[in-house]
Amino acid sequence: MRRENIKKRRRKKRKRILSVVLIVGLLLIIIPTAFVLSKNILEKNISKNQDNTPKEDTTQNEKPVEPVKQDVKEEVIISAAGDSTLGTDTKFSGETLPAVFNTTGKNYAYFYQNVYDIFSKDDYTFVNLETTFTDATAKKDKGKPPYYHFKGPKDYVNILTSGSVEGVTVANNHIYDYGQQGFNDTIEVLKGAKVDIAGEGYKIVKEIKGIKFGFLGYQAWSDTKELRDKIKSDISELKNSGCEVVIPYFHWGIEGQYKPYDVQVNIGKYAIDSGADLVLGSHPHVVQTLENYKGKLIVYSFGNFCFGGNNNPTDKRTFILQAKLNFTNGKLDQTSFKVIPCSVSSVNNKNDYRPTPMKDQNKTNLLKFLNELSPTLNGEIKDEFFQIQ
Predict the structure, then answer these.
(1) Rounded CA separation 389/380 (Å)
(2) What spans are recorded as compositionally biased (Basic and acidic residues) (predicted)?
């Protein structure tokens, strides 16, 4: 009996020990697990609270990055030429310009046909229109002869448009050959054909590739205060209206003289001093000096061009001037020039009224002659674009 009690006590003791071991083992598992779980929960709560905390908007303090502006570059080519007398004097006979026109089947494009490729590829062409387009018959009294009265039928304006001539100066000694009616008819016809007009109270403001150009025309027979005031006022007006480039065209000089006289020189330089960017001239019926004045060009005379005033002029030499103007952001920053030697006729023995670019030795000779006349250009005149300083 006693032995059985001892065995029972031993079994109970072993059970208690086993229970303690199990409890301790469970605690060793549960406590670390609970610690890890509670830590994770705590971290999640902290993270959640941090996410809900209002953040400072730093973007308000950041300046927006502006895109880099690219310079806007533009190139404009202006062509200019001399006396275009698209008509005749009623006293003339034989092969006058109207007579030749009739033999072509009344082809308006005939006259500028040989320079059309030049004029049509530029941005603007500007010439001296030395005639009237009118049906008027009453001639202006010009005093003692010799004198001439030039006119062409009104439809001759199509010669200009067919030749890609966009603008003309009418400031010359023939625009009133048929009085006020002849002048009024000419202006009306030009406007109807959308040919721009400069001179005799008209100014051209033309926007080309987003850049404003101004063109003016003057008769300049003497150097007067009135003329100077007019030149200065007109150039200032155009510049103030936004014209980046202003080009006046003067009718001046002495016929048959290859060098300018003091009136031309003084007025031309005054125009540049007043803000002109390029000065053009005609009337002497022959080419004259080109001058570099303060880095700007003065063309004193182009000579004749499409000239119905003579059926066989002794000196048929003329030229087209092209000015290439380069702009950055609308401001002129570089100008270069090209002189294209021409003859007023495509044949040598008469005037067929078709100005034609020269070739070979004739071209070389005229460029040489112009350089000899123009010492301030230092021999730079050529039929490729060149710059002056």
Answers:
(1) 11
(2) 53-67
> E strands within the chain?
73-85, 88-89, 124-129, 132-133, 150-152, 167-169, 196-198, 204-208, 211-219, 245-251, 278-282, 290-293, 296-299, 304-307, 317-328, 331-343, 356-357
In the chain, where are the structural domains located?
Answer: 2-58, 73-377
Alpha carbons 259 and 322: distance in angstroms, whole number? 21
> Are the CB atoms for 122 and 78 separated by under 8 Å?
yes
Q: Residue 219 in 3-state DSSP?
A: strand
Distance between alpha carbon 218 and the CA centroid of its chain, in Å? 23
Amino acid at 379: G
Domain topology for 73-377 = Purple Acid Phosphatase; chain A, domain 2 (3.60.21)
* Burial class of 378 by CB neighbour count within 10 A (0 to 12, 13 to 18, 19+): exposed
pLDDT tens-digit profile of 181-234? 999 999 999 999 999 999 999 999 999 999 999 999 999 999 999 999 999 999
pTM of the model: 0.83
List pLDDT tens digits, range 236-279. Answer: 999 999 999 999 999 999 999 999 999 999 999 999 999 999 99
E strand spans, 86-140: 88-89, 124-129, 132-133
Half-sphere exposure of 171 (CA within 13 A, CB side): 26
List the structure tokens of 50: 């941090």
Interatomic CA distance for residues 215 and 243, integer angstroms: 10
Q: Name the residue with tokens 């009024």.
A: 184
- Cα separations in angstroms, 85 against 18, 206, 215: 133, 24, 20
* Helices (H) then strands (E): counts for the chain: 8, 17
Q: Is residue 283 within 8 Å of residue 323, measured between CB atoms?
A: no
Can you read off the two tokens belonging to residue 328? 């950055």
Dihedral sign computed on CA atoms, order 300, 306, 312, 316? positive
Which residues partner with 218 through β-bridges? Answer: 250
Torsion angle of alpha carbons 115, 120, 121, 122, nearest 10°? 90
